[in-house]
TrEMBL record:
Positions in coiled-coil regions: none
Domain FAD-binding PCMH-type: 39-212
Signal peptide from the UniProt entry: none
EC category name: oxidoreductase
Stated family: Belongs to the FAD-binding oxidoreductase/transferase type 4 family.
The keyword Transferase appears for this protein: no
Cofactor: FAD
Gene source species: Desulfoluna limicola
Source organism superkingdom: Bacteria
Protein name, UniProt field: D-lactate dehydrogenase (cytochrome)
InterPro entries for this protein: FAD-bd_oxidored_4_C, FAD-bd_PCMH, FAD-bd_PCMH-like_sf, FAD-bd_PCMH_sub2, FAD-linked_Oxase-like_C, Oxid_FAD_bind_N, Vanillyl_alc_oxidase_C-sub2
Keywords: FAD, Flavoprotein, Oxidoreductase, Transit peptide
Keyword Membrane: no
EC number: 1.1.2.4
Length: 478
């Protein structure tokens, strides 16, 4: 079967070991000892289809032989969303790029799924348009990939998730059939938002865009970090909704400062960056709102405009802190903004108990929620200490859970938390749809719907709690 695909696709199909190895990882710094003992992440074949017909042909062939297929484009996540766990075929979709059509009257654009947000934004800007929202990894993240892995980021505060902006999608189903799906079709585009590529190959997306407009940026120093959530809520409640807003706590900022990324001499507290877009009159009202919030609280101060502009220009480099290395571990949670203060206290107490310093930043989301990334330094070259340190990721998840939070994204590594991510009935419906669309289970198996055996509750919880206690008692470094 693999030989047949190699003959059809020529140089765009490869079983060379070195090339296949490139597709056996993503950005997650997980030791090979852990990965290789649990999963078969090395694909048997890598294919690079150039159009929908070739994608459909590969899927029909895989469907007949029950061969797993894992779609991949940017591969910019850390949850193994696009890494195979049962070998088979990795479908590299990076040839499925380009803008197909811009409808200025309807304010929509049709774009091929592996187009990066940076490329789409650049194309739209030349036509006086812009994306409504985009991920912080826009230079490498693709439109289809972000739809498949949730889709909250820069601009989501004002315009919602990517799934809410999508009008229609073209998809190749696991059996090779091509479908055009809308918000009212069955399945619908809502089913594909956050589906991790488990329901087929999305090839084209029609999504809402906005007029390119002026922007204004502000950087607020919050002297008491415990006020961060209240300040963010206040900035969202003064009439002019920000386009984007994010925060970083003092330890995170100190780590950036040590790398030469200085945002001012911030000894404590946090920084809140808030960005507005719209007509000049709207930006004038936004300025009054920010000044009103800052002026009404003695613990708040505005940093210079050029620093706020610099922070906006760095918006696609949120993980620049990783340059301090050797690596980072952590977890991303979405929780109510009013619980942010308690979460910060909770996670810092866990840090004291288990001997790690949490570095925290986050983005405001619609409906008074915030997506919070909590990381700590670790050394992936020291395998045993690193594996023990992995147990602290669960402690971060537990702190989020105690404060009304849910994990952001699923993929493979968050499947142990499925019971926290989706309600039981919703999970049953997701599994039913998966069974209907992909009865052979060939489409990106091992993701989203259930945890692998060794990740099942309660064994996963017990094992991680034991390792965390070892970490606490021995105070393992690295």
């Amino acid at each position: 079967m693999y030989e047949t695909l190699k003959q059809k696709l020529g140089e765009r199909a490869s079983d060379a070991p070195m090339e296949r190895a490139l597709y056996s990882r993503d950005l997650a710094p997980v030791p090979s000892l852990v990965v290789e003992s649990l999963f078969r992440t090395m694909p048997d074949l890598v294919v690079r289809p150039a159009n929908d017909d070739e994608i459909a042909d590969v899927m029909r062939t895989a469907h007949r032989k029950s061969i797993p297929v894992t779609p991949r484009a940017g591969g910019s996540t850390v949850y193994f969303n696009s890494v195979p766990v049962k070998g088979g075929i990795v479908m590299d979709l990076n040839l499925i790029q380009g803008v197909v059509d811009l409808n200025e009257n309807a304010m929509t654009v049709k774009v091929r799924a592996a187009t990066t947000f940076e490329a789409l934004e650049s194309w739209l800007n030349k036509h006086g348009m812009a994306c409504q929202s985009m991920p912080s990894s826009a230079p490498v993240a693709t439109v289809g990939g972000w739809l498949n892995t949730m889709g909250y980021g820069i601009g989501s505060l004002k315009y919602g998730s990517l799934a809410s902006q999508v009008r229609s999608i073209d998809v190749v189903l696991p059996d090779g059939r091509k479908k055009h799906l809308t918000r009212v079709s069955n399945p619908s585009i809502r089913d594909y938002g956050g589906s991790d590529g488990t329901l087929g190959i999305v090839t084209q997306i029609e999504l809402d865009v906005r007029k390119q407009s002026p922007m204004a940026h502000y950087l607020v120093h919050v002297q008491d970090a415990r006020q961060t959530g209240a300040v963010m809520n206040a900035l969202c409640s003064r009439g002019t909704l920000p386009y984007h807003m994010h925060f970083a706590d003092a330890p995170y900022l100190h780590s950036l400062g040590a790398l030469g990324y200085s945002l001012g001499n911030i000894a404590d507290g946090s920084l809140v960056a808030v960005d507005f877009e719209g007509a000049e009159s709207e930006l004038a009202r936004a300025k009054c709102s920010v000044e009103d919030v800052v002026g009404s609280n003695a613990d708040l101060s505005l940093l210079p405009e050029d620093m706020a502009d610099m922070e906006w220009n760095e918006r696609f480099r949120a993980i620049r802190i990783k340059r301090g290395g050797p690596s980072l571990l952590g977890a991303e949670m979405t929780l109510p903004t009013f619980r942010l203060t308690v979460y910060l206290d909770d996670i810092r107490e866990s840090g004291k108990r288990f001997g790690f310093e949490p570095l925290i930043y986050g983005h405001a989301c619609p409906n008074h929620h915030v997506t919070v990334m909590t990381v700590f330094t670790a050394d992936e070259t020291k395998t045993l200490p690193y594996i023990i340190n992995l147990s602290l990721v669960k402690k971060i998840h537990d702190a989020g859970r105690r404060n009304g939070g849910v994990p952001y994204g699923t993929g493979l590594w968050n499947t142990p938390y499925l019971h926290r991510i989706v309600e039981k009935k919703e999970l049953e419906n997701m599994r039913k749809l998966k069974s209907n669309v992909d009865p052979s289970g060939i489409m990106n198996p091992g993701k989203t719907y259930r945890a692998p055996f060794l990740f099942n509750r309660p064994g996963f919880a017990i094992g991680n709690n034991v390792l965390a206690e070892v970490r606490r008692l021995v105070r393992i470094k690295g």
